[in-house]
Amino acid sequence: MKKLLCILSAGLALQGMASASQAQGMLEKRHLAIATTGSVISYYPIEIALAKGYFKDEGLDVERSMYSGGPQTLQALLGGSADMVVSAYSNTLTMAAKGQRLQAFVLMIKYPAFVLAISRAGQEKYTSLKSLAGMKIGVTSPGSSTNMILNTIAQRNGVDPKSYSVIGVGAMSGAVAAVKQNRVDALVGIDPTISMLEEDKQIKIVADMRTGPGTQAAIGSATYPEGSVISTTDFIKKNPNTVQAVVNAMLRAEKFLETATAAQIADALPKSYQVGERDMFLKAIEHTRTVYSTDGRYDLEGAKAVLGVLANSEPSVAAAQSRIDLQSTYTNKFVDAAVVKKP
User: Fold this and answer.
1) At 40, is the secondary structure helix, strand, or coil?
2) How far apart are CA 276 and CA 135, in angstroms?
3) Phi-psi region of 229 (alpha: psi -120 to 50; beta: other; left: phi over 0)
4) Which of 7, 22, 217, 296 has a CA between 20 and 30 Å from the CA of residue 207?
5) At how many degrees (to 10) do helices 300-313 and 145-156 cross?
6) Is 295 helix (H, G, I), strand (E, B) or coil?
7) For the chain, how far is it from start to end, CA to CA, in angstroms?
8) How far is CA 42 from each of CA 160, 174, 192, 215, 290, rounded to the nearest angstrom?
9) For residues 153 and 219, is the Cβ–Cβ distance under 8 A?
10) How many CA atoms lie within 13 A of 219 on its CB side?
11) pLDDT tens-digit profile, the chain (343 residues)
12) In DSSP terms, which residues pair with 139 in a beta bridge?
C-alpha cells in the first residue's frame, strides 16, 4: 500500500510539474550563453540574478562569459558564441544603423548613472558648464558612452566638443589616479569611483545622472535606458519561452535591489566585486540604487534621448537616424507577461 501511495504521489508531482511547464511554456533552450562586461555597479541586476540562483529557479543553466567592453560582447553575440548580452541599450541603435537587428527585452538601468565632476585641478577655472571649453576631461575611454554623454552636455551648454581634450582613464583605479594626480580638470565617472572621490573631497559634482531630475537637467530627458539584456530578433523569435524565463529572473533581481538594504546587496555579491572599504562600498550602493529599473520597461521618450546622444557623436547613427525604427529596438511584451517570484 505504501509503495502504491509513493508511486501515485510521484505521478501527481510529475503531472503537476508538467502542467506548470505547459502553463508557462517549455524552454526551447535551457543552456544559455550570456556575455557581459566587468562588474560595473550599475549592472548589478545581472550579478544578483546569477549570485542568488534566480536563473536556475527558472530552469536555466547560464554560462556567463566576461568581456572587456560592449563591442566585444556584441561580437560574441553576432558571432554566435553568445545567445544574449548584458550591455547598453544604445548598442541596439548603433547596430540598427548598420542593418543589424538587435532587441532589448528587459531594462536594468533607467538613467545613465554617470556623474560629471570637476577635479581640484579644474575648480579654479570652473564657473559654469561653459567652462568645459579648454579642459582636460577624463572618460572611461574615447568614444565610450561617458564620452558621448559629455559631448551632449557640452553642446546643450554651447560648448564645442572639439574645444576640450578627452582622456581615457578607465572606470576605477585609473580614474581615481587621474583625478588625484591632477591629470584631468574634470571627470565623467561612475560609482563607486565617484563616491570615493567625493568622500575624499577630490571632486565637485556639477551634473548627476543617477536620478531622474539630474538626468533631465543634464541631457534633457527624465529617462535614459542604459544597461539591458539584449539579443538578436531572430533568437528572441525562436526562443520566446527561454527569453521569458530570463526576464522573470531579472525582474526578481530588480525587486531584490528595490527592497534589500545596501548591506544585503553587498552580501549577495561575490566578494571580488566589493571595491574599497566596506563602508564606502555601501555608500556607493546607496548613491546608485536610484538608477535601477523596478519594472524592466522601456519607453519611447527614453529611446529618443539615447538616439539623440548617439547622433551627436556617431556620424553613422546621425546619417541613419531617420531610418531607425526605435520601437523595434526594444520590447515590453516579456515584462508584461512576467511571473516574478519573491526575492
Assistant:
1) coil
2) 29
3) beta
4) 296
5) 90
6) coil
7) 40
8) 29, 18, 10, 15, 10
9) yes
10) 34
11) 444 444 444 444 434 333 333 345 799 999 999 999 866 677 889 999 999 999 999 999 999 998 877 788 899 999 999 999 999 999 999 999 999 999 999 999 999 999 999 999 999 999 999 999 999 999 988 888 899 999 999 999 999 999 999 999 988 889 999 999 999 999 999 988 999 999 999 999 999 999 999 999 999 999 999 999 999 999 999 999 999 999 999 999 999 999 999 999 999 987 777 777 889 889 989 989 999 999 999 999 999 999 999 998 889 999 999 999 999 999 999 999 999 999 9
12) 168
pTM score of the predicted model: 0.87
Is the Cβ–Cβ distance between 306 and 224 less than 8 Å? yes
Going by C-beta distance under 8 Å and a sequence separation of 6 or more, which residues neighbour residue 33? 62, 63, 65, 81, 82, 83, 84
Could you tell me how far CA 270 lies from the centroid of its own chain?
A: 18
Cβ-in-10-Å burial (0-12, 13-18, 19+) of 86 comes to buried
**CA–CA distances in Å: residue 321 to residues 85, 147, 198, 214, 220:** 24, 20, 38, 26, 19
How far CA 182 is from CA of 44, 154, 239, 310, in Å, comes to 31, 21, 51, 30
Q: Residue 86 has which C-alpha cell?
A: 548584458
267: its cell numbers: 552580501
pLDDT value for 52: 96
- Half-sphere exposure for 61 (CA within 13 Å, toward CB): 4
The DSSP letter of residue 289 is: G
pLDDT for 10 equals: 43
Q: Rounded CA gap, 36 and 43, in Å?
A: 9
Cβ-based burial of 180 (10 A; exposed 0-12, middle 13-18, buried ≥19): middle
DSSP for 232-287, written as a single string: EHHHHHH-HHHHHHHHHHHHHHHHHHHHS-HHHHHHHS-GGG--S-HHHHHHHHHH
Among 265, 306, 239, which residue's Cα sits nearest to residue 41? Answer: 265
Do residues 247 and 253 make contact, with C-beta atoms less than 8 angstroms apart? no
